[in-house]
């Protein structure tokens, strides 16, 4: 699967992360869209209701209910989840526990340092991309494969 993203959507996502980072807090944004053949075309960059701290986030029941209503109304799916970390980018135990998407091939992206030094130009270099495996693990996609096989920015 190839995620099709817009520069404006990535900029919006990074702004949410920097905003939360000012409060020393992680942030999660869900990229919503539709499957078109082998592509996941992201059309909305959605910041759900969330409870977040410096080292974790979770979406409470009212946030999940709002998300489900939004998905139904727009006939959308969660194409990927993306969140920030205070330091390096990796998929933590808390990330594994609170992951919103858990189907084989699902994408979870992590941006380091609350996106303080991440820009549109270096986004794919800074961001770690993980994919949910058949073994129910989040496996890191090697950086050289991200641009070729996972993410296209339009």
List the helices and strands and how they pair.
Blueprint: E1 2-5, H1 7-22, E2 28-36, E3 39-46, E4 51-53, E5 56-58, H2 61-74, E6 77-84, H3 93-98, E7 107-111, H4 123-126, E8 128-132, E9 138-140, H5 143-150, E10 151-153
Parallel strand pairs: 1-3, 1-10, 6-7
Antiparallel strand pairs: 2-3, 2-6, 4-5, 7-8, 8-9
Describe this protein's structure.
By secondary structure, the chain is of the alpha/beta class. The protein has a single domain, classed as Cytidine Deaminase, domain 2 (3-Layer(aba) Sandwich), CATH 3.40.140.10. The chain has helices at residues 7-22, 61-74, 93-98, 123-126, 143-150; strands spanning 2-5, 28-36, 39-46, 51-53, 56-58, 77-84, 107-111, 128-132, 138-140, 151-153. An eight-stranded mixed sheet has the order 9-8-7-6-2-3-1-10. A two-stranded antiparallel sheet has the order 4-5. Strand 2 and strand 3 form a beta hairpin. The longest helix is centred in the first third of the chain and has 16 residues, at 7-22. The radius of gyration is 14 Å and the shape is globular. The model has no long low-confidence stretch (mean pLDDT 94).
